[in-house]
Amino acid sequence: PWATVLTCADSRVPPELIFGGLNPGELFVCRNAGNTADIATLGTIEYGGEHLGSPLIVVMGHERCGAVKAACEVAEKGTKLPGFIGPMVDAILPAAKAEMGKEGDFVANVVRENAKRTADKIGTESEIVKHLVDEGKVKIVYAVYDLDTGVVDFIG
Asked: What is the pLDDT of residues 33-82, one digit of tens each?
């Protein structure tokens, strides 16, 4: 695969279609609500880089993300979320807390910050990915997908 893509589970964000109707095997895809990097996701990304030779890791958030909205509500109002949704959203809370009170749309700001923090986490917490980046074999970037225009804004 030419890229490993970590994006949201939201059905409006299909990376195989967003990046041009690619053939099977061209992307290695990880998806979960809020595009966070838990243990299973980090292991999957490591496998993509180490064993499949994927040279690019893309962390792609998207506008109006429900998981990010939930994290914003927890940060602002202290909302308690049921079941495993609460712990899932906990991974996004640092981004929400960092963006509280800043200019612009709170949810949009957190979508961007969450993608950045997730990309940073992949590059620092995974020794395998860090080694591949240091050797120049892998690059990590983050982006936000616009649901209305279909444009992917690569930020970092």
From this structure: 999 999 999 999 999 999 999 999 999 999 999 999 999 999 999 999 99
The 3 state secondary structure assigned to the chain is CCEEEEECCCCCCCHHHHCCCCCCCCEEEEECCCCCCCHHHHHHHHHHHHCCCCCEEEEEEECCCHHHHHHHHHHHHCCCCCCCHHHHHHCCHHHHHHHCCCCCCHHHHHHHHHHHHHHHHHHHHCHHHHHHHHCCCCEEEEEEECCCCCCEEECC
Can you name the residues that pair with 51 across neighbouring β-strands? none
152-154 β-sheet, strand order: 27-31, 3-7, 56-62, 139-145, 152-154
Q: What is the pLDDT of residues 102-135, one digit of tens each?
A: 999 999 999 999 999 999 999 999 999 999 999 9
**pLDDT bucket at 149, cuts 50 / 70 / 90:** very high
How far is Cα 16 from Cα 69, in angstroms, rounded to an integer?
25
Q: What is the number of residues in the chain?
A: 156
- List beta partners, residue 46: none
Give the separation between CA 131 and CA 137, rounded to whole angstroms: 9
